[in-house]
Write a structure and sequence with these properties.
The protein is an alpha/beta fold. Helix content is 43%, strand content 13%. It folds into 2 domains: 1-31; 36-226, SGNH hydrolase (Rossmann fold, 3-Layer(aba) Sandwich), CATH 3.40.50.1110. β4 (124-128), α5 (138-152) and β5 (157-163) form a beta-alpha-beta unit. α4 (110-117) packs parallel to α5 (138-152) and α5 packs parallel to α6. Keywords: Hydrolase. InterPro entries: Ester_Hydrolysis_Enzymes, SGNH_hydro, SGNH_hydro_sf. This is SGNH/GDSL hydrolase family protein.
Length: 236
């Protein structure tokens, strides 16, 4: 006959196992950028970078991901966006992308943040991203792009595609190609960066300070080449 204390011990052990599993799930999610602590940190970095305005001249708005924020840098003001000519305002959020599901931090896709970002009244909008859409369905990327273009209708827009970050290299060609096709459909200049060999941090996803500088300089040059001083984005 079983000892009457065994069920209690088993139940207690089950609770401990469940608790440990929950804690492990929280840790894994946070490490992946999906946990509450990580999301809160992303929000703090986004506000810190948004408070920084660089340069003078034509007002430029950058809507982007962790690269525009400068995640991994000691000084967020040195993110690649600072290399763009003009008075540059950055509205970035780490982990975000064109698709709504790129981030697990809530409504932070480019579309969801665009209306508020346009409050700076830019002459040019530069949208940078795609790396965080690496595991998203093509239909989700298309939907997010369509909604973003509706938000930006009437504005001059340039879309900057993903670079070939080693951690997500296998997914870049698909995302890059689809973004280029979508930009063409909406009459928006598309700047490819997947050909660049950049310096990355140990995570193989984010740029070093030199990587940011090179990326920003190349993007600035390529934006000049596609001549963004053209009619605003058209609707479909």
């Amino acid at each position: 006959m079983l000892h009457r204390g065994i069920p209690r011990r088993v139940a207690g052990a089950s609770v401990v196992v469940l608790l440990l599993a929950a804690l492990m799930a929280f840790w894994v999610a946070d490490r992946a950028g999906a946990g509450p602590a990580r999301c809160q940190q992303h929000r703090l970095y986004a506000r810190e970078r948004a408070a920084v305005v660089t340069g003078e001249g034509e007002r430029v708005l950058v809507i982007g991901d962790s690269w525009s924020v400068g995640l991994g840098q000691d000084d967020l003001r040195r993110s690649w966006a600072a290399e763009l000519p003009g008075e540059v305002h950055v509205r970035g959020f780490s982990g975000s992308g064109f698709s709504a599901g790129a981030s697990h931090c809530g409504r932070v896709s480019f579309h969801h943040r665009a209306a508020t970002a346009l409050g700076v009244r830019p002459a040019l909008v530069v949208v940078e991203g795609g790396l965080n859409d690496f595991d998203q369905p093509t239909a989700a990327i298309e939907r997010g792009f369509r909604d973003l273009m509706a938000d930006l209708a009437g504005h001059r827009v340039v879309v900057v595609g993903p670079a070939d970050a080693p951690l997500r290299s296998r997914a870049v060609p698909r995302v890059d190609a689809r973004l280029a096709e979508l930009a063409d459909a909406y009459g928006v200049p598309y700047v490819r960066t997947s050909d660049l060999e950049l310096d990355y941090l140990d995570d193989r996803l984010h740029l070093t300070e030199d990587g940011h500088r090179e990326f920003g300089e190349v993007v600035a040059d390529r934006i000049a080449e596609v001549d963004p001083a053209r009619p605003a984005v058209r609707t479909r």
